[in-house]
Amino acid sequence: MGLKSLEPFRSTLTEWKIKSVIVRQGSTDELEWHERGGDTIGPLYSCTKSVLSALIGIALDKGYLENVEQPVTDFLKPPAEAEEAVSRIQIRHLLTMTPGFDWPDFDKPYKAFRSSADPIRFVFDRPVISEPGAAFSYNSGGSHLLSAILTAATGMPGLQFAKEQLFGPMEFRSARWMARCGVNEGGTGMYLYGRDLVKIGQLFAQNGRYGSEQLISPTWIAKSTKLHHRGLLHYEPPIYGGYGYHWWITPESHNGFADCYFAFGHGGQYLLVAPDRELVVVVRKQVTKRNDAIYSRRFIFEHLIPALYG
User: Fold this and answer.
1) For 202-257, what is each residue's pLDDT tens digit?
2) What is the DSSP string of 207-270?
3) How many CB atoms lie within 10 A of CB 253?
4) pTM score of the predicted model
5) What CA–CA distance (Å, rounded) separates 105 from 85?
């Protein structure tokens, strides 16, 4: 790694309200910068979704789930009036944000969903207005259904499953995950240290292998991080990308650097993986206006990557 320190970027990082940056290239080279001097546990916001996707992959690998074509109704019982429509929705539709629920752009029903007494029932009460698989609509309610499916399939809360199958083997320092009605929040609510979030990126960059253990199958890594829907590739400013299985996808033609995928959280939280470069980057940013999240992306692609590879 040609870059030896992130300190030269301090003024830009401060101006853009970026609080923490961790860079890992290969198995040894690492850079860190923290506004407060050290790594702290903090909210992932919607980066939680990508960790949940990894847990779904592990559940498949372990035989708790048969395949991503299983219908939601194999695990969850919707109200009678919604059962026929919901029965067409499969796990893969939830993973790709294409279940067809009436869920306006940018998660607009999220506040009502979050405050509902029964969040699963809230999702099922939304009408299905398009054929599952046809239309992309960012939907944290669908992510919560995935977490509920994980709990139903494994017989344990998502956080317990994560600690047993992922966080424990990778020796995470600490992990918290908020729950609603006995189900860990599928779309948000997870808290990790930045260095532990980097480990998840490394795990994916190494095709699911951590040390001597194969924690996730290479097949799942490949399937979950490929482009399944164009998603928000054309959104301006280019904060987002296409969509895989709860991972955002940004091809080289979109970012000018390399084929990458990333977990993205509210306000500009990033876990970016460029597997061909063995590059993993975590950026944590103060939450301000929604489109200010572009500053995290700009730092990665306009400042960090040119300094690393220029």
Assistant:
1) 999 999 999 999 999 999 999 999 999 999 999 999 999 999 999 999 999 999 99
2) TTEETTEE-S-HHHHHHHTS-SB-TTTT-SS----EESSSSEEE-HHHHSS--EEEEEETTTEE
3) 8
4) 0.97
5) 21
